[in-house]
Structures are given as C-alpha cells and as structure tokens.
Design a protein that fits this description.
Elements (H helix, E strand, L loop, with lengths): L9 H7 L3 H16 L8 H24 L6 H30 L9 H8 L4 H11 L2 H5 L2 H6 L3 H6 L10 H20 L1 H7 L2 H15 L3 H33 L22 H8 L4 H32 L8 H10 L11
Length: about 350
C-alpha cells in the first residue's frame, strides 16, 4: 500500500519536536484557555472534545494500559511505581522538610516551604501518561499509579505535620485505579482486546494534552513571577533527576533511564494544596497567596521542561522511540515520509 503524502505534514512536524505530540497541544490549550475560555464553553461536542474530555481520554489510556499488564509483568510495574514514589515524593519531601527545620516556613529566596512541598512532592499523571505512552513500555505506563498516590496534598500535609487531614478517602483511591483494574481483567480474559487497544495512547495524547492545557491560566503563571518560574525550573531537573537516578541505579534501565525525567512535574491540582494546608493549620495562611501563584507557574514550566529533558536524554542515547514493536509498527505505516521514521531510531 502506497503511503499517503500529506500536503501539510502536521503529524510529522510535531514528531520532529521532542515530546511535540504532547507539548504543543498543551501550550495551545493554555493559550486558548487563558485568552478565549468562552470558546471552549459553547457546549456539545466541541466542549466535550477540547475541554471536558481530558479526564475521559486519560481514563481511556489508563484502561488500555491495564490491558497490557499480565501476571508476568505486574511485578516490574509495581517496582517501577515504588521507585518513582521514593525518588519523586519521599526523598525531595524529606529534604525540603529538613530545610524547613533550618529556615522555618519562610523557606529560601522568597519561596516558602509550603510552596516547595506543594510543587515537588507530587507529579502530573497526565504528562507521565502522555510521555510514556509514546516512549515508554508497559512498566512505565503502568507506573502511573505512583501519580494516583502522590497526586494532591497527601504528602505535603504529612510532611508539614498536618496529618489530621492527610487521609485519602478510600473511594478516591479506588476511583483512580478502577479503570486500570478493569483493563487488567479484560486484557487477561480476552487478549484480542489487548491488541485492539494497544494504539490508544498514541491516538488520544494530543487531545488530553490540549484539555490539560486549558486548565492552566497563563495569568497565574505571570503573577507567580520570577520566583514561580525559578521554582518550575528547579522542579524538573531536581526531582526528575532523582527519578532518573532511581531508573538508572535501582531499576537498571540503562540508556532508557532518561524516561525518569518525565516525572519531574507538578500536578495541576497542587495549585489548591496551599489553601488546603492552611485549612489544616491557620498559621500557614500568610503563605497561601504567594505560594498558590508560584505553584501555578511551576505547573506550566515543569510540564514543558520535564518531557523536554527526558526527550533530549533519550535522543542522546539513541532511545527516542517506543520500545514496544507493536506500538512502533502502526506509526511506521502512517508516516508521510519514510525518512521521518529515522528520527526515533
């Protein structure tokens, strides 16, 4: 079958940008969500596809990921998720708490301990799913459960001593993992569904990335100022670097360890963490306003930096490609120019 040549090779152009299928829609979504949010509120299929559909698309990716998990590879997935939690949440959280013991809640350089914890001890599950859906394997995609655990104020509340409100309701945790569990069940009962759902991450990444972007208000990023941007510039290489070390030395992933940098992000809902922490301890109220804008800036900056660093390192090691032949094959048949495939080799 003769490959179809594109008059405007949008797909191939995005593929030439490291993480482009995720980063470009994310930026476009944040621009539209900031400058013309009403355009996304006209209802019907437009709103469903470009705004409200982000969570549904992510759930679909999680379901499809579950279908790839078998008893044979379940152990490596749990091991990968455990390393991510250790290096992305516990290690940086303890380090920041140690700084707090020395400086107090004021922190350093105008960045409070509250803002540091809210930015560094969690990760953006959507970014992780998008990146590992393109360049990761079953272990990486399944390890999204680490984001389901560290997402939100859980670790922050524990680390600042507000443990009275740190309990995660059981139904919240179950809601996050039920699509994965159902995917595991269906995939193991009928392997044909596994093959049908295998290309799903590649297809839906641009759509849920755009939807995630619409939730990032660029005004908040600007209000976060230099300190917020600086915090974002620190989160990606520092926390992503810790996960990279975990991938390299604990998981022994060799040249593919660069994937770990994709975890160096800040979850979008962490913007609410300072206010939640202040509700647990009123003495933190003085830090909420500045911390909130700093975290908002950090969400966007880290969402752009983390996949860019991960892509650069994978490309440097000749690993900027899907390790699963089944994922790579559909891409090869859909590209407009066969020479473009060499980008990922």
């Amino acid at each position: 079958m003769t490959p179809v040549r594109s008059r405007f090779p949008i797909y191939d152009t995005l593929n030439r940008i490291p993480g482009g299928l995720m980063i470009v829609p994310l930026i476009l979504g944040s621009i539209v969500g900031t400058l013309a949010p009403e355009a996304l509120e006209i209802g019907s299929f437009t709103t469903a596809l470009f705004k409200d559909g982000a969570m549904a698309f992510m759930a679909l990716v999680i379901f499809a990921t579950g279908m790839q998990i078998t008893p044979r590879n379940a152990g490596p997935i749990v091991g990968t998720a455990s390393v991510i939690l250790l290096m992305k949440s516990l290690v940086p959280g303890v380090l920041i708490a140690g700084i707090g013991l020395a400086t107090g809640m004021e922190g350093l350089f105008g960045i409070s301990i509250l803002a540091m914890l809210a930015s560094m001890d969690n990760s953006n599950g959507g970014i992780w799913l998008a990146f590992t859906g393109r360049y990761g394997d079953q272990r990486d995609r399944g390890a999204y459960i680490a984001s389901a655990i560290n997402d939100g104020p859980f670790f922050t509340l524990i680390l600042i001593g507000a443990s009275g409100l740190a309990d995660i309701p059981l139904e919240v945790f179950l809601a996050a993992i039920i699509p994965l569990l159902l995917g595991i069940l269906v995939g193991n009962l009928d392997p044909k569904w596994t093959e049908v759902m295998r290309p799903v991450p590649e297809m839906v990444i641009p759509f849920f990335s755009f939807g995630l972007g619409t939730g990032i208000n660029l005004t908040d990023v600007v209000q976060g100022g230099i300190t917020g941007i600086g915090l974002g510039l620190l989160v990606a290489p520092l926390t992503g670097g810790l996960v990279y070390l975990g991938y390299r030395y604990l998981l022994k992933r060799g040249p593919r360890s660069g994937i770990g940098f994709a975890a160096g992000t800040t979850a979008g809902n962490s913007i609410a963490t300072p206010a939640i922490a202040a509700a647990a301890d009123s003495s933190l109220q003085a830090y909420v306003g500045v911390a909130t804008t700093q975290v908002a800036a950090c969400v966007l900056v880290s969402a752009l930096m983390a996949p860019a660093i991960a892509s650069w390192l994978l490309k440097r090691n000749g690993e900027l490609k899907s390790p699963d032949p089944e994922v790579e094959a559909p891409l090869a048949t859909s590209t407009a120019h066969t020479t473009d495939q060499a980008i990922f080799k």
